[in-house]
Specification:
It is globular, with a radius of gyration of 20 Å. It has 331 residues and is α/β, with parallel strands linked by helices. The protein starts with a strand and ends in a 9-residue tail after the last strand. Helix 1 runs parallel beside helix 2 and helix 1 runs parallel beside helix 10. The protein has an eight-stranded parallel β-barrel with strand order 1-2-3-4-5-6-7-14, surrounded by six helices. The chain folds into two domains: 245 residues, Phosphoenolpyruvate-binding domains (TIM Barrel); 58 residues, no CATH class.
């Protein structure tokens, strides 16, 4: 099972390698990357150096070109594919049909993975991408239960990758329509939902307030940890009560499911967080490396160590973790 870790910078990439990642996924510094945060990501010499560093350490470089091409911007997506290949990418993570076709036709030997953004949740969809574009792996959306993941693993020969740890998204995998409606910026190409240019923080008599395009998202009491203001994880007044009406701020943590994921043949587990710090990448990679190795040695007696969960909880949203949709009791 491959441990695939995120990096938004060279220091984060080196931490991932040091702590045992098998592969690192990064993005380019433009709107072909769904996470093109200011000050992060790779281009030109930096991209080439990242590839060289990974290859020197026997690791693989995955590059996410995972947004959907604009009608008047096709050349940027085409250039992104060419640039990634020229600078040493081992794998491209793609979602757009046209980008998949271009990469498949132009670089037939290149390893292509279907991005979670494409939302392939059934065998027919997975087989379509394999047959049409020679996709070797599909990243499953975070809406499937562990039972559904196992079913897919039995029904397809395509490699499957699942998210193992990190932020959850209740919308259509990074294409948040709430954020798009509120800001006028599509998360597909704006780099993230809740773009930083629309975020405002203000101290008031009621507490610290976070706003997105002047809409109040949350208000924090003194000494309360303030999260980044995303609409889905804000606190709103509903029928006189103020609470997280859409989703609690929490992070996915599937350590408990690791034996099941391993036994059903999942090829890779992915850590979310290309926008996170090198310290986050270091800690999460170290814990997951230890867990995967322990599970591979003896999956029948595998139990997550309390220190692992404590370490992951310390860097999770709202300091709490969840099994997310993997654990659907009603199914």
């Amino acid at each position: 099972m491959e441990l695939l870790c995120p990096a938004g910078s060279m220091p984060a990439l080196k931490k991932a390698v040091t702590e045992g990642a098998d592969a690192v996924y990064i993005g380019l510094k433009d709107d072909t990357n769904a996470r093109h945060f200011a000050g992060l990501n790779f281009t030109g010499d930096k991209l080439s150096k990242a590839a060289d560093y990974l290859h020197q350490h026997g690791k693989k470089l995955h590059i996410a070109i995972n947004t959907f091409a604009h009608p008047d911007g096709w050349r940027r997506w085409q250039y992104a594919v060419d640039s990634a290949v020229d600078n040493g990418a081992d794998t491209l993570i793609l979602a757009d049909l046209a980008v998949l076709e271009y990469a498949c036709d132009t670089y037939p030997q290149l390893d292509l993975h279907l991005s979670v953004q494409a939302s392939a949740t059934n065998t027919v969809a997975i087989n379509f991408y394999q047959q049409q574009f020679n996709v070797s792996r599909v990243v499953l959306p975070r809406v499937l239960s562990i039972h559904q993941v196992k079913q897919l693993a039995r029904q397809t020969t395509v490699e499957l990758e699942v998210f193992a740890y990190g932020s959850l998204c209740i919308m259509a995998e990074g294409r948040c329509y709430l954020s798009s409606y509120m800001t006028g910026e599509s998360p597909n190409t704006a780099g993230a939902c809740s773009p930083a240019s629309f975020v405002r923080w203000q101290e008031t008599e009621q507490g610290l307030e976070s706003r997105l395009n002047d809409v109040l998202i949350d208000r924090y009491k003194k000494h309360e940890n303030a999260g980044y203001p995303t609409l889905c994880k804000g606190r709103f007044e509903v029928e006189g009560n103020v609470y997280h009406a859409l989703e609690e701020p929490t992070s996915l943590n599937t350590l408990d499911l690791l034996p099941e994921l391993m036994q059903c043949g999942i090829s890779a587990v992915k850590i979310e967080g290309r926008q996170r710090s090198p310290a986050y990448v270091e800690q999460v990679t170290r814990i997951w490396r230890q867990a995967i190795d322990a599970c591979a040695r003896d999956s029948g007696n595998f139990n997550p160590q309390p220190a692992w969960n404590q370490g992951l909880q310390a860097v999770s949203e709202g300091s709490q973790t969840s099994l997310g949709a993997y654990h659907r009791k009603w199914q």
